[in-house]
Amino acid sequence: MVNSLRLNEITKRFPGVRALDRVTFSVEPGSVHALVGENGAGKSTLLRILGGIYQPDSGSLLVGGTERRFQSAASSIAAGVAIIHQELHYVPNLTIAENLLLGHLPHRYGFFRRGDAIRVAGGHLRRMGVDLNPRAKLKTLSIAERQMVEICKALLRQAQIIALDEPTSSLSHHETEILFRLVRDLRKQGKILIYVSHRLEEIFELCDACTVLRDGHTVATHHSLVGVSRAQLVEEMVGRKISDIYNYRPRSMGPVRLEVKAVTGKQVARPVSFSVHSGEVVGFFGLVGSGRSELMHLIFGAARPRSGSIEIDGQRIRARHPIDAIRRGVAFCPEDRKECGIIPIRSVTENINLTARQRGGLRAFLIDFGSEFKVTDRFIQRLGIKTPSRRQKIRFLSGGNQQKVILARWLNLPNLRVVIMDEPTRGIDVGAKHEIYNFIYELAERGCAVVVVSSELPEVIGIADRMVVMREGAIIGEIPREDFSEHLALSLALPDEQVA
After folding, report:
1. What is the pTM of this model?
2. Enclosing domain of residue 468
3. 401 and 287 inside one domain
4. Which among 49, 308, 339, 456 is most buried, taking Cβ atoms within 10 Å?
């Protein structure tokens, strides 16, 4: 059993920003300690210090009363610390077995023993209840499956201190249940667990204690969650009261703006048809793997449809490439911001102005930086993007602020008619969610047809005018807002044998 963990007055500065300012809290063995706060509050920075990626400017990290200072990720791992980051770290061209055992691959006389690796990894996956083929390459897996592999890797190393950063953000209901069982088992084993999540229902279900961060400061530490309300945590996180996070706004709707007719694709096996009116927000709900994201890729031109047609304002479009869709006024905020949404090595300004450059922002091979700076400053202020400067590389921003940059990119499109948002609030704090929901309503009020794909059923119920439920690559049913209920949506989304 490990001894207690204490972070004492941890301070960390970056150019133009103080990410952490004397953050202090402790975690006892055999407990799950929640770490909550808005995006940019300093949670991920704190985990990176614990994981040896960053070193604190001041303060101390004590394990069992002994001060430790991890100079690298390797030294942190050697000390029994495992950090499962929100942005996953894996080698896509290697197999699951090779990723799980990376750094500890079985070998003999210098030769890699593939069969031994597959046997060890397969046994570990089975013990965890994860149904994955250890021979499969990581690049062929869904985001949810990759996340489960990352969790398995940490547990395989027999870590004593385990921190999980938004571990359920991409997991299905079944996978979340597996994770919760693993966390409870680890708690019984006396491990120290730090659990970072924006899903407050998970905090109250799983955690014993909670520390709230805001703007790099420790706002509160609750040694027990008994008597602590959700509203209290939200107010401590954002510094203000948010009575209704969804704040649904009814509005008048115009004619059909987007119409999908009998579209099929590689993972959309049966013909799919639906329509979205001007000014309407349609929520797509379904389990992970139901075909929702694949359908959106077909509409945006990121995948080729096998049959069917797509119409915008009654005119058929042929989106063979995303550029074709963008020119027709279709915007897409992808599920995986890191892989598909941002250019991490470029600045906030460049990421916001990508669409402007596509439609002719370059004049005689020159970029009008003055104009781009004005656009960037306007959206930084309008969307409340937290960044030390417009020149900051976007990869240094929090997930919520990266999502706001992607939104700004599409709001900068003058002929915007259809907006598709795939898991727009994944890994985003409650305050940023509230702001993004308001931007969704604003887009609808501008006359856009808005499609929101979400695995969070309360979110779909909270913001959508109509719900479309998918299962196994097909639309199973549509539910008008007046008939919304979790039971009805789940009864449509779950396979028949799982419906109670």
Report:
1. 0.64
2. 256-498
3. yes
4. 49
